[in-house]
Amino acid sequence: MDFSTPYAHCRGKITLEGGRMDILLVDDSRTMRMIIQRAIRQAGYRGLIVGEAENGAQAMEKLRAEQPKLILSDWNMPQMSGIDFLVQVRAAQNNVPFGFITSETSSGIKDLAMRSGATFLISKPFTPEDVQNALSPILGR
Question: What is the pLDDT of residues 79-122, one digit of tens each?
């Protein structure tokens, strides 16, 4: 493995500050962020620039500098939950497609997500096909 360049060890995963970001991935679990990125690649989306945040507050900071094509967020996170993050994004008149990947599966949660402006909700556990079905209307393929 070549570790001479930043992120060379991430096999296709690129996280950049101040670059052109395709997806902003928000989850407090580093492991889950890695699993989601792998599912994105397995769904056929390679070479995308994925920015990461550990919670909604950190993600709002990233949105001040970036304009991703898509936001993927967990629901339950410290400091600012996914639904609070979505509400703040929409309050800022930002209409970026916003999807949840969450273990929250009740119909009430799904309804709240959609009423608040979510584009889709993927329930954990998920497959690369679930990811592809949600992302293809937004990113193509």
Answer: 999 999 999 999 999 999 999 999 988 999 999 999 999 999 99
Domain span at residue 42 reads 8-136
Residue 91 included in any domain? yes
DSSP bridge partners of 98: 71
Cβ pair 24, 55 in contact under 8 A: no
Give the number of C-alpha atoms closer than 13 A to the C-alpha of residue 72, restricted to the C-beta side: 26
Q: Supply the pTM of this predicted model.
A: 0.84
Residue type for 56, please? G
51, two tokens: 């920015």
Q: How far apart are CA 118 and CA 122, in angstroms?
A: 11
What whole-number distance in Å separates Cα of residue 70 and Cα of residue 22?
Answer: 7
* Backbone dihedral region for residue 117 (phi beyond 0: left; psi -120 to 50: alpha; all else: beta): left
> What are the beta bridge partners of residue 49?
14
DSSP 8-state symbol, 75: S
Does any domain span residue 70?
A: yes
Distances (CA, A) of 120 to 17, 26, 38, 116, 137: 26, 15, 19, 11, 11
